[in-house]
Batch of 3 targets.
Target 1
Amino acid sequence: MNAIIQQRQGRKRHKRKTHDKCYKKCGTISSVKDLRRHLQTAIEIEHATLPPYLTALYSIKEGTNAFSYQTIQSVAMEEMLHMILACNILNAIGGHPAINKKRFVPSYPGYLPHSNNSFIVGLGKFSPEAIDTFLEIELPAQAGAPAQPDHWDTIGQFYEAIEYALCHFDLVTEGGIFTGDKSYQLDENDYYGGGGKLFKVYNLPRAIVAIQEILSQGEGMSDSIFDSDEMFGEEIDIAHYYKFNEIKEGRRYTLNGTPEKPPCGEKVDVDYDEVYNMAPNPSIKNYPEGSPLWQQTNEFNKTYMALLDSIHDAVNGNPDELKRAVPLMFDIKYKAIALMKTPYKDGMTAGPSFEFVK
Amino acid sequence: MTEKQYDVVVVGSGIAGAVLAKVLTQAGKEVLMLEAGLTAGMALKPEEDYENYQSYLQRFYETTIKATNTPYPEIKDAPSISVLEIQPQTPYETGYMVQLGPLPFGSDCLRAPGGTTLHWLGNVPRMLPNDFQMKTLYDQGVDWPICYDDLMRYYEMAENEIGVAGDVDSQQGPDMSRSNYGPDYVFPMDKIPQSYQDQVWIKSTNGLDVSLYGKTYTVNCISMPQGRNSTPNNDYRYADTVWDPASQSLNLITTDKNYEVVGATWNSYTGERCEGNASCVPICPVQAKYNALKTLKKADESKLDIITKAVASRVLIEPGGTDVAGIMYKAYTDPDSIEYTPHIAKGKIYVLACSAIENAKLLLASNVANSSDQVGRNLMDHLVLLTWGLLPEKGYPYRGPGCTTYIPTFRDGEFRKDFAAWISPIDNWGWSWPTFAPGSDVTNAVINNAMFGKDLRSHLNADVPRQTLLHFECEQAPCADNRITISEKYKDHLDNYRPVIEYDASDYMRKSFKAAKHVSDQIFAANNIEDHTIYSPTEADYVTWDGQGYTFRGAGHIVGTHRMGSSASESVVDKNQRTWDHQNLYLVGCGNMPTLGTSNPTLTMTAMTYQAAESILKQLESNN
């Protein structure tokens, strides 16, 4: 990967001046402090995708829908990687990711943080509607679409604004802005199991590679269905939007697949009936306080909070804490599935609500 | 079917075959691999691979009595041994193995793509330097034609390929220290954290003095190196083993990058760390445990042809000569049908890599490589004495892999002149091995004690977490009469021979059981463990020594049926693992081991396979 970073470093140095102009055009990120706030938002966006993805994933009955299961799982894993990469960038410029605060936890149904509020994201079982929402989340930016620090149309445009601001402030700040404590950085030894290698961010080129990794896995390179993992020495993989499109269309893309055409490769089995019939958008408020479902949901939420606490500590100077988060992630899964096996009403089951609890 | 002449024909896709396929194809050689098992298991495409592996898991979850081969398909055309077939009374012929006795042989292996590494535990301690000189030092068995130092660089290659997680500095014991590994050597990954239960044991066991026949031994507990994914060790600098034509040798090349953790074969992000699923044997659900298919996937596909559902049946010799002319194999379509078509695979060099049992069978069936009359003889295993009891506090077994700590104290010593050495893994799976716990605890409570509801739960909760097991893997000495033979009377579905086994445990091992139990008693006492060990005369492999009865179990370490040696009259292969009788026939696998030592044999066998691969490459290049 070092070679890639060096190669991009060269290219990016050359591009810096242009980037700076771009920044000025879209520049509503007004200071380093403001940039940190935007990176905090980036972390919140990455995180906000996880409860919907995990809910759909865990609603799939064991042993069925192998392709869809693997696909959603791989996307969720990559979103977790992106979330931690965004934390690394924020730490690199001296910020402090806030993961376990009340405002960090999204409410469902709702809009993704700081988006243009054009689509609503909820917690639902694996279904055609869920896949449509996922496609909205991962929608690629049109070529030439402007960078958008707020009210973004696509996540790509939001990150582009961040990238420009990183370049700008690193250029105009005496000594640069990458002055964060390096011991706060997480790397491949701390994080594994998803979507590529986590790496430390301590200068602009690495921050840009991190953003490229996030964007290419999510939405694809501007004109291709494939992500850039090949450059990271990994197997060829397609970007999230197109992965979800394969589920929607029930077909794989071939190696010559393009964004314009629907996938025309081999068929995949997608069976929306082999799914726990979870009532959409579960909430602890739906259950009388102290009732069994209330308790079960409360336990789930407490585990979710413990996980956020653990991740918070890990990205605030205690990387080893991430190892301790692993059993909690298993616990989340087991408890979510247990909820989805518990009848609620109208033939539907309860489900994980991912709510903030003290 | 195949008329192509390959550089090398390899029979078997277990770890030895996979290492050969990888090393030889990466060195540019054309390789044909024959595998007796089903195509699905080869799983070269991620989706099919995933589905096939899920089917293994499904079978494991759904089967009530879970044995080592339970998850994997039973094939009549290429049967595997089932340990569930083992019966106390010999002779019998009800299973795949014909057991002539006097004792039944209690171990199995797996005939499927990936071989027995699919169900192995993954413990990979190295052998000790003294293990290679049993005759010279202790007047037992034979010496190896090579010594520990000869194998050292190949051990490093094997540890790189398997991806060993462990702590070199803690590998201390008799004949075991930092010097066994070299001054700066580290394993590719950090040790797997030792389990909670291990910590409970270590408190009163580490440093404990035990007495045995008037001598005092200080017991120590150290971490077990294992082929299971953990965090990469930042100081490990080896990338891969590569053939260097200039020096005509295999070398580990270095890198400035960290060790690349190898995840599941279907998704490299699955299984990047051990998740503590605690079902390593018979199947790791996420493939954090190494298996040979991981190595096979790294072979150069363009140079490798694999034929599955191909059961090697005969090694053919040039008429009037001694060179191998081909391997006859029977290709089946339906795995349970008696129909097959015969084919001949042709190469410059042939390698049998299909387990100590199948290699010996194939050689005997072909009447080759046996001028020494050693083929099939010296069958060995670790004879496992189990002792079990209840801890005074909850140790919480099943947290983590099968074994993360072991006691090396009796791996070597003067006593080896008198009785067998042993290694003592501290098992992490309660009484599951001797009593089929925890299932049997439920059955007993419900059926015998009519318990249910809260009573049942609190009973299980009180007992099962306190169950603990210690285990003594005693080194079996080679004996010519412990052997595999073949007979026209016993054939399988495809008219191939079934293994006919004669087997016994000599006094050297029986004395060791007595010693081990004596040590166990002292360790249990120090830990206040309530001993629940029972050895019953009705069990298979129940033996007596000095008025006491002991039941031993097979370890699955099937070794020694075509041993390596320094003379053609006493061994089947030379120190390069080439048969003395045929210049283009190599044997690889545990069958080559002249003695067993106290290590789980896979690591040593893999190291030897690297050495064999190097010899094969040299021979191929010298012929060009």
Note: DSSP finds nine helices and two strands in chain A.
Target 2
Amino acid sequence: MTLGMELRYRWMKDVALPVLLKARERNRRKGSIGESPLGPPLESTRSLKRLMTRHYALARYAEGARPVAWVTSGAPVELLRAFGCYSVYPENHAALCGARRMGPEICTRAEEAGFSRDLCSYARVDLGHALSGLTPVGRLPRPDVLFCTNNICQTILYWFKELSHREGIPLVLFDTPFISVGEGTPEVFDYVAGQIKDAVPALERITGREFREDRFHEVLRSSIRASALWGEVLATMRHRPAPMTVFDAFVHLAPVVSLRGLPSCERYYEGLLAELQERVSRDVAAVPGERHRLMWDNIAIWFALAPLSRLFAEHGCAGVAGTYPNAWAETNHYLDLADPFGSLAKTYALIFLNRGLDYRLGLMEAMGRDYQVDGLVLHSARSCKPYSVGQYDLRRSLAGRLGIKSVVLEGDMTDFRTWSEEQARTRLTAFFESLDG
Amino acid sequence: MGRTAYLQGQKAAGRKVAAVWPARYPAELLWAHGVCPAEVWDPPAGQALAGAHLQSYVCGIVRQGLELLLSGGLTTADILLFPHTCDSIQNLGSLVRDLVHEPRPCLYFYPPRSGRSERAAVYLEAQLRTLSADLTRIAGPLRDGALEGALALGNGRAAALRHMYDLRARGALDASNEEFYGAVRTCEYLWPEDAVLHLEAFMKTHAGRPRRGVPLVLSGVLPAPSDLAQRLDGLSVAVVEDDLLACGRRFARALLPEPGDPWRAMAARLLALPPCSTAGDSVEDRASFLAEQVERTGGRGVLVLALKFCEPELFQIPSLVDAMRGRGIPVLAVETELGNSAPAGMMTRVEAFLESLP
């Protein structure tokens, strides 16, 4: 890290980027959205765009000024923040590539290098980006460290190992044993906590910075608060009519994934929550004339987010709950400043994707009741096995327990070569009609 | 004797039977509890019943294993054991217990991914004790010396396998690829003493005649997805070694020293297995292991039999291929599927690869 790079980073962060972003917003013409079946858009979306654009723009200047880490979505980022690392989330970047409909183009680069088209499309986007530099965000900084936890899938381990091998970047891995039964054992938590403790000297070596416990505690406090705020944001959708939809949640979860532990993340969710609470107080509906309330299972179909959102709304259907957005509000209550390493182990080992399907079924049932859901849409994501294997039976079980109808959409997160828009529209329309039935 | 009849015989002799999904698990612990493992890799099952539970993009091992279970093909088993080998097997284990409501005990085993560290060994040992507690409830407690006895059985089987692989590598085993792997894979269900007898009889029958064909090392998952082993025999390929997930990469061939603490020894046995994608080992380690196999056996190239939808392998193959080529070792990776006959296009690629070998 050089002084010149540090000064450039600070100048961009504090002076140039704020000016550039304001100018960009001023110059952006307001496009006509035409006739929309949706309610008024959230004001906070502008702040979100500013926040995330700034995050990716600043990332380019972080290289050489800050230790840069590429991080998996379920990793204990709080530890990295204590070292002042700049974090980039390849999964978030892949989602962005998906939303900008660049998935197949970038995936193809990975496939040309020998990676099977059957592999996770987030991984193919990331490896394709590493091979080609293709990205909608200009450029991602080269990482100094890869920071990986396999609590969301084993795939992420193979993916980050491959990245580490190809790019020659050190990998810090936290192995979180899958909790098939019960609430986890002391052996599991000791094993995970031990690995997190082991990462401290490794990160000191890689970053050249000392671990500061006071900074670590500060980050933990911020992370706890951000996740709690995110939980409150999601909970506003319990209101009838829902003030936002699960499609909004997919978009607005970016900060809690990518910026958790930073003050900007807390500030953002304070603003979003205030806006939603105000909508609730005035019964402002995200879907005017809301007739049906639906739960979405699995990651978003990023490239089809807007058309799906409109299609739902055209039929008076509001997506009001989602297992995926809920994941970042689910376990942070375990975080405890009195036992930071042990509680981080619990927080990250106990997320629903790292637990048996019985737990997931219970979680979905509870969400279905809490959010007064009368239908379920399951995205069977071709390239995400841990989320998708078991969905057919979850669907049957939930139908029995909640008495709700459901539909399965075969798709993917980013790779729209496997997606048939017409087929999806037909299936959903038939499903919506059956709800009216 | 067929597999089912053999397993029924085991039960008649007072042992329990555990249906075990791939790939790595502590067989010695099951033996110590008097449980005979019977592994479920590529049973000759369709996928009609499994299709109601699993998407078409799930690998054949998972789909056919579930099909076998749902169609009543695992009635001999008293226990189902699911090692957490990959996301799909992990979810299958949960699906079977939680949502299909399998009434028999479903047990789980998580091979650590944090390298071969002391921390991994400690966690592994703790898991072995937990699994033993579960097995105690089902099959009864461990008798005095049962663990040491099981480790000795493991050493006996490892020695027999090593001998058989050595004979083949030295060109002193006149067995087709199909025959060789047929014999090795009896270890998937035979009680270890029976496995040793079977392997020794096989070596006796097939010993002493020279090897024929192009010497190749096999990598990938299974030696015979579909009819590939026979097709390789037809192409005069003489497989001399393998790091197949179903065979060389997870049947121990190294002997354990006299165990001090048997729990530690069992953990050490698992941690000492060859580098593997499913264990999160690096591609460098795997490439070095394969290169050593090639050098030791005089293999002229490596044929990688990738299995469709097998994520751990499919992630590693591009770099593995690069690493082998970087070492000057010819390599071909082909994608295979369970159940279907090896497609003509794939066999043409294999033929062209064989012709290109130096």
Note: Residues 308 and 337 of chain B are 6 Å apart (CA to CA).
Target 3
Amino acid sequence: MLRLKCPYCQLDADETELSPGGEAHIRRRAVDSTDAEFTDYLFRRRNPQDVHVERWRHSFGCGKWFIVARCTLTQEVFATYKAQCEHVPKSVLDAIDARRSGSGLRKAVQGRKNQ
Amino acid sequence: MQRYSSIRLLREALRGHSGWEQAWNTPDPRPQYDYIIIGAGGHGLATAYYLGKNHAISNVAILEKGWLGGGNTGRNTTIIRSNYLHDESVAIYEKSRQLYESMSEDLNMNVMFSPRGVLTLAQNHHEVHCLMRIAGSNFRQGIDTEFITPSRISEICPSICIDGPRYPVRGALWHPQGGTARHDAVAWGYARACSAMGMHVIEDCEVTGILQSESRVTGVTTTRGAIHCNKLGIVAAGYTGKLAEMAGFELPIESVSLQALVSEPVKPFLDVVVMANTVHGYVSQSDKGELVIGGGTDGYNNFSQRGSFTHIEESISALVEMFPMISRLRILRQWGGIVDMTADRSPIISKTPVKNLYVDCGWGTGGFKAIPGSGWAMAELMVNDAPGLLAAPFDLQRFSQGRFVDERVAAGVAH
């Protein structure tokens, strides 16, 4: 079972206490966006066999949304952080690079910034 | 190909089974093929088989990174049904179910197709309405289903506890033509038939790159060297996205884990497939007597091919409620498979931005039942460079154009 630390209440929460919410840091598109941009917003998702940055909700706890950097293959958790930020914080990227230099996450994150 | 028959079986029984040949060849890859299929699971092998059978193309290699049928083909709960909601889905799943009926004769391999009937339970008011809607839709589509009452359910399957404590059974969708088949035999049968047509089934051969020239595919690099081809089909379920990335495009797919388990064998008591979507559990009894049990998917992206205790508990508590008599059964094995989910829970059988490169993926939690129909449609697409009627609704463009085949109701939970 996954255990994730909620960055708000500092509890180690079991998977059963949490709800997964899909890829994090996706920017909502407005009605004046192009079809391609809106399609990306709705359907384009990273699906790495590696580090994935995703939203979780502490549903049966404090109820807050937070963000987790987790490896989808080994289930290793690199960081959990509060959801009030637009991009993956540099400290988290550095922490991932320190343990998983070839993860490609930094490049993927930079690729998304221009959207 | 050595034909299998009762006479052959008797002959071999009398001479100590010394005369059986290897069922399929294990050749080294040639440098060039007309067609390469990546993925020797059910869908990949069926694609190759129908390339040969329907289109007389035999210069084909099927590349597999692990062993034959070791992915989701060997990890599912073997349920076959065609009672979906929308016309597009019903067309391909019903084609598939019909091909399953004649598969054993076609492949000269007993795939143990058993159309024992599928019972999908309605355990709340909303589900009653959903299943009635599907029954109405199926009636119009010519699929044999009906919505039945609790007393009829008890006649068909007396061991179900109709007045369960949490979710009493209020009705069910009865699909008498649905059933199960032996999953390994399907993969083996196709591999044997492909091999007999002169195709190469190459195991232990992982694709590491996709070769292109002027955005046209020319071959693949693999752990066993470069192999060239004219046309390439990616049929690799949860790993299709990774291969698409190598080719330089993205697919709207997320991979999650779906798990299943089997109990110790017991005497026959369950001769239908029972699905209960509200409580997330579905079960059938194998010919050996084991209960084959499936549950829901994990809600998060996952590539580790194992399950989690939470889902075992969830599936088991649902089943014990439906069948109180199984509460003391022991569980023998449990495993997870990586399924490729699309946003509308329907597959992708499509051309791609790279010329002569095709994908067949996104079957999510319901791939096994679709194996022959999927192979049929994918072979047609690859040969004509244009989809036939079966594949046309499932192209990649449907996401940007809003032409979804939304099967979340019929397929989002259980198979």
Note: Residues 3-113 of chain A form a domain with the Folate-binding fold fold (CATH 3.30.2270.10).
